[in-house]
Amino acid sequence: MNTDRGTGGLRTVVDKDTGVAVLTLDRPERLNAIDLETAGQLTSAWREFRHDDTVRAVVVTGAGERAFCTGLDRNAEVPQPGSPYMVDDPLLAIGPKANDLWKPVVVAVNGMACGGAFYLIGEAEFVVADETATFFDPHTTYGMVSAYESIYLAQRMPFGEVARMALMGTAERVSARRAYEVGLVSEVTPAGEALAAAVRCAAVIASYPAEAVQGTVRACWAAQEATRAQALAHAAHLVALGNLPAGRQAELFSTRRPDFRTR
Fold first, then answer.
1. Is the distance from CB of 25 to CB of 39 less than 8 angstroms?
2. What phi, psi does 258 have (nearest 5°)?
3. Which residues, 6 or more positions from 222, have their beta carbon under 8 angstroms from its beta carbon?
4. In the predicted model, what is the mean pLDDT of residues 181-200?
5. Was domain 2-73+89-191+207-262 assigned CATH 3.90.226.10?
6. Side by side, which strands form the sheet with 134-136?
7. In three state form, how does the secondary structure of the chain look?
8. 154 with 163: CB under 8 angstroms?
9. What do you get for the CA distance between the two ends of the chain, in Å?
10. What is the spatial distance between Cα 110 and Cα 28, in angstroms, rounded to a whole number?
11. pLDDT tens-digit profile of 124-144?
12. Which Pfam families does this UniProt record tie to the protein (predicted)?
């Protein structure tokens, strides 16, 4: 039995028979960029799953073929405090771990995954990508600090790969195959098959005793939690001190070069 709930930019389908929920970022016309409404819906979904014992595993994907997610929608109005000691990050609570959900989460990536997409990828247990997927971080190109994104990626990739992605900005994209080689992706599928592969994995995991699965998830994250927490504590200050003013960011965005290299 499936239950389907769709509002705004997020669509949720729960298969009560398998125990797998599929969350789909459903803004393909905006390359599944996350606006404030969708950010709130993601937070609500994770909180709801905490209390729904019929959901034993979750898959996150993006609608359409062009992108999994391109981060925060640039049209979203996010007023900021005038102090470098305070930053309101609208994406900070869009992931499962930020909402204290310790059920397994698998991300299925199609097309582009960049910037704020790493908040979701970074809090998943593993990532399945189809061969069309590419990964990049545009922050430095537009005069912004890649803080949270780099911290999340550092939990999954070698230092040099994280630094290269963050510093090269929009000039370079990492292919699905290269992402697999460096550990960001656990499986590469033919084009269009990442979601099906992720759901198959989730269904297997959901068939096991929930207590054992969730305990294993918690143990995996405990192994790196102290380092992650300490790093995230610095992120807001780095963003506040290093970001260019919004107007200058917009200017750089509007004059960006369309060419890039994929490796």
1. no
2. -80, -15
3. none
4. 98
5. yes
6. 67-69, 112-114, 134-136, 172-175, 261-262
7. CEEEEEECCEEEEEECCCCEEEEEECCHHHCCCECHHHHHHHHHHHHHHHCCCCCCEEEEEECCCCEEECCECCCCCCCCCCCCCCCCCCCCCCCCHHHCCCCCEEEEECCEEECCHHHHHHCCCEEEEECCCEEECCHHHHCCCCCHHHHHHHCCCCHHHHHHHHHHHHHEEEEHHHHHHCCCCCEEECCCCHHHHHHHHHHHHHCCCHHHHHHHHHHHHHCCHHHHHHHHHHHHHHHHHHCCCHHHHHHHHHCCCCCCEEC
8. no
9. 42
10. 12
11. 999 999 999 999 999 999 888
12. ECH_1
Torsion angle of the four alpha carbons 83, 89, 93, 94, in this order, in degrees rounded to the nearest 10:
180
What residue type is 105 in one-letter code? V
* Domain ranges, ordered by start, for the chain: 2-73+89-191+207-262
Question: What is the rounded distance in angstroms from the CA atom of residue 166 to the CA atom of residue 136?
Answer: 8
Report d(CA 91, CA 71) in Å as an integer. 8
Whose CA is closest to 200, among 3, 6, 22? 22
> How many CB atoms are located within 10 Å of the residue 241 CB?
11
The amino acid that residue 53 corresponds to is D
Q: In this structure, are residues 221 and 194 in contact, taking their beta carbons and an 8 Å threshold?
A: no
